[in-house]
Amino acid sequence: MDLILYNPLSKNNKGNVQTHKLIREYKKNNLPFRLKSIVKIADMKEFLEKKKHFEKVILLGGDGTINRFVNNTIDYDIKQDIYLKKNGSGNDFLRSLAGNDTLPQSIMKATYDTGKETHFINGIGMGLDGYVIYLIDKSKRKGQFRYFLNTLKALILYIPEPLNLIIDGVSHDFKKAYIVAINNGKFFGGGMRVAPDADITDENLDIIVLHSAMKIMILPIFLTIYFGKHRMFKKYVFFKKGKHVKAKFTTPQISQADGENYYDVTSIDIKSSGKKIHLRSYK
Fold first, then answer.
1. pTM of the full predicted structure?
2. 61 with 119, same domain?
3. How deeply is 125 buried, as exposed, middle or buried, from its count of CB atoms within 10 A (0-12, 13-18, 19+)?
4. Domain span including residue 66
5. 2, 47, 52, 40: which is closest to 22 by C-alpha?
6. In CATH, what number is assigned to the domain containing residue 14?
7. Are 88 and 117 in contact (CB under 8 A)?
8. Based on the number of CB atoms within 10 Å of its own CB, is 111 exposed (0-12), middle (13-18) or buried (19 or more)?
9. What is the number of other CB atoms lying within 10 angstroms of the CB of residue 277?
10. Do 83 and 132 share a domain, yes or no?
11. What is the domain count for the chain?
């Protein structure tokens, strides 16, 4: 018997549509299942421990749902096979997972200067990236087009700041940084191929900084990210791989980790947590 966990708040509160489709599929094939809303689970570790008799767990939700699941089970040895099914507005981790789910995925750890700590599995960012997610959260509608529109709005309002970046002990300084993205997966922003060479199974981080360009240049660069071609703008796009990253702006920023926002952040320290989780794509 399978256990289906769904997030009714995914995809701007429209997650129930995909949930009902999956339920119809199970019923059509006479497959036994149990359904549970994750918002009603107070302790995920305790819940899964009591459900060890289920062979498979299907988790429906977007990047935020996956992020919360990873953080809530970080110290738990998961017994069940966990399968992910698209049910959010971003689904960037699932894009990276497609065709690459035979090995466990690395879980990264981020520590903020505010004292907060979180784990992420797809990507983390600060600056323009976090501001875009903030605008999207305020929007009534979600999706790729809304991400693009909110990116335009953020570009108009955001003021680039000095950034100090330390990658494996080597310092890099940028006078006008728009965004620093540190990715474990290939995608962000609902399908933008920001880190084409990233591998979710290793412990390397892909670091991308958009800097120095006039605002009129930022939009064309952002458009090329959808195709993973932004690195051709070598004057404005810094790229490097590393295992330990420290990023520090001069003024407080909005940061996002797998689409979850953190406010009033000036610096973050990022490295592998040393832990892995094996999530699979639901076929």
1. 0.91
2. no
3. buried
4. 2-88
5. 2
6. 3.40.50.10330
7. no
8. middle
9. 18
10. no
11. 2
